[in-house]
Amino acid sequence: MILNDSIITINTEELTAHQVRMMKTLNTLIQHVLSTEDEGEYFESSAEVLRICAALIKQANFCKGVKSDIPYGEQVIEYSMDILQEHINSARVVTYDN
Fold first, then answer.
1. Residue 15, Cβ density class (10 Å: 0-12 exposed, 13-18 middle, ≥19 buried)
2. Distance CA 40, CA 48 (A)
3. Could you tell me where the DSSP H helices lie in 1-98?
4. Cα–Cα distance measured from residue 46 to residue 22, given in angstroms and rounded to the nearest whole number
5. Residue 50 in contact with residue 77, Cβ under 8 Å?
6. Nearest residue to 22 (alpha-carbon basis) of 47, 45, 54
7. How far apart are CA 19 and CA 25, in angstroms?
8. Mean of the per-residue pLDDT values for the chain?
């Protein structure tokens, strides 16, 4: 019998219970996006992955710890979307294999 499981360990010490639940959901959704063969599920799950990522970014400890009127959560998401759009327009695949 061959196991096709991979264990991902995340240090949740500095995360809230809500952040941990969102990370678990994100992990499950990413696996689903990568394995689904249904077009509707592929699109909907992909959109949900990005929505959860944005929510996690806005709830980051950095945003809570900075004493400023600057909306860092919104700014970093806008910045990330700009970078993402650049990658989409360049039509190149980013790989992080070592």
1. middle
2. 12
3. 17-35, 39-58, 61-65, 72-90
4. 15
5. no
6. 54
7. 10
8. 88
How many Cα atoms sit within 13 Å of 68 on the Cβ side?
Answer: 9
How far the first Cα of the chain sits from its last, in Å, is 28
User: Looking at residues 9-15, what average pLDDT do you find?
Assistant: 92
Q: What is the model's pLDDT at position 97?
A: 66
Please tell me whether residue 63 adopts helix, strand or coil conformation. helix
Closest by CA to 59, choosing from 81, 48, 74, is 74
Q: How far is 55 from 67, CA to CA, in rounded Å?
A: 20
Summarize pLDDT for 53-70 with one digit per residue, the tens.
999 999 888 887 778 888
pLDDT for the residue 91 = 67
